[in-house]
Amino acid sequence: MSSSIRTCLWFRDGRGREAAEFYCSLIPDSRVERIFTGDAGQGAFSVIDFSLGGVPYQILDAGPHFTLTEAVSIAVETADQAETDRLWAALTADGGEESVCGWLKDRYGVSWQIFPKRLTELTMNAHKNVSAKAMAAMMKQKKIDIAAIELAVTLH
């Protein structure tokens, strides 16, 4: 894949290649495309180009100058609850942290939003009552439980 636009994530701990390979193992149609390592006179660095589900990303692993923040996250709209559960478990394992409303931080410090497509259908529903109930139910959750949100929407 050749793309002139990529989201770049700054890593500081030498684990960028490991992270890219892990992410690619989780999401279909993903691959590490190229890896470049060098030293620009300021210390060793790596650039890892990869794609997740066909979307281009890059990791610049270049030391402690910057840190990852929740202000940037990778959002994954899954096909169903089972896929949400699978990704959630993998990304929170080995030091990852759950947050709220489908957000988490993985073991590398990258923030993710993992949610089933049905959540989008409910929270962006043209019927304001449905949308409001879905949003209210979502706000009480960490990992999205779409069955609980659908139940909240149907209750009067």
Verbal overview:
The protein is an alpha/beta fold. The chain has five helices and eight strands. The chain has helices at residues 16-26, 81-92, 117-123, 128-138, 146-154; strands at 7-11, 31-39, 44-52, 55-61, 73-78, 97-98, 103-105, 111-116. Strands 1-4-3-2 form a four-stranded mixed β-sheet, covered by helices on one side. Strands 5-8-7-6 form a four-stranded mixed β-sheet. A hairpin with a 5-residue loop joins strand 7 and strand 8. The model has no long low-confidence stretch (mean pLDDT 95).
Task: Give the helix/strand layout.
Layout: E1 7-11, H1 16-26, E2 31-39, E3 44-52, E4 55-61, E5 73-78, H2 81-92, E6 97-98, E7 103-105, E8 111-116, H3 117-123, H4 128-138, H5 146-154
Tag the structure with descriptive keywords.
156 residues, alpha/beta, 4-stranded mixed sheet, 8 strands, elongated
Total helices: the number is: 5
Q: Kindly report how far apart the N and C termini lie.
A: 49 Å
CA gyration radius, whole angstroms: 18 Å
Please indicate the percent range of residues in DSSP E strands (runs of 2 or more): 25-35%
Residue runs with pLDDT of under 50 for 5 or more positions: none
Largest sheet: 4 strands, mixed
The ordered string of helix (H) and strand (E) elements is EHEEEEHEEEHHH
Helix/strand class? alpha/beta
> What portion of residues is helical?
25-40%
